[in-house]
Design goal:
Structural class: mainly alpha
Strand order of the largest sheet: 1-2
Distance between the termini: 125 Å
Number of helices: 2
Largest sheet: 2 strands, antiparallel
Oligomer: single chain
Helix content: 55-70%
Strand content: 5-15%
């Protein structure tokens, strides 16, 4: 248990009455302190004159609590990383969908533009044809009028 590559220096000292072990260099959460205050099973506990906890047991308990706390922090960090990756994938997916939609829209717009140009060319061609027909019919009408003049 534990490890995690920490280089933090932890020291254990006994107070002047040797009743309490003082741990220096370690931050403990309230939950860890509360669990340490809870009485453990009397089995495995050695008593000195006034019933103090054995230093080795206390060191072991502190190490276990630190390992649990470190594991909890590592687990939370891993959850944050996974959540971050999930958010990043969602963002990438949304960007890809947006890009595809923009490309489809651009293609549709270009198709409409080309269609409009095609219709404009067809309309111009039709107008040229109508002008030719108009000129032809005017010419024919003028010929007919010239032929009919002697009769009227």
């Amino acid at each position: 248990m534990g490890g995690g590559g920490s280089t933090r220096r932890v020291t254990f000292e006994a107070d002047e009455n040797e009743n309490i072990t003082v741990v220096k260099g370690v931050r403990l959460s309230d939950s860890v302190i509360d669990r340490m205050k809870e009485p453990s099973s009397p089995r495995g506990r050695q008593h000195r004159g006034s019933g103090a906890v054995n230093d080795e047991e206390l060191k072991k308990r502190i190490a276990e609590e630190l390992a649990l706390e470190r594991a909890r922090r590592d687990s939370e960090a891993q959850k944050r990383r996974l959540f971050g990756r999930l958010l990043e994938r969602e963002r990438i997916s949304a960007n890809e969908q947006l890009t595809r939609a923009m490309l489809r829209e651009r293609a549709a717009t270009e198709e409409e533009r080309q269609k409009a140009q095609r219709f404009a060319r067809q309309l111009e061609e039709k107008e040229r044809e109508l002008k030719k027909h108009d000129a032809y019919y005017k010419e024919q009408l003028a010929r007919l009028e010239e032929r009919v003049k002697p009769f009227f």
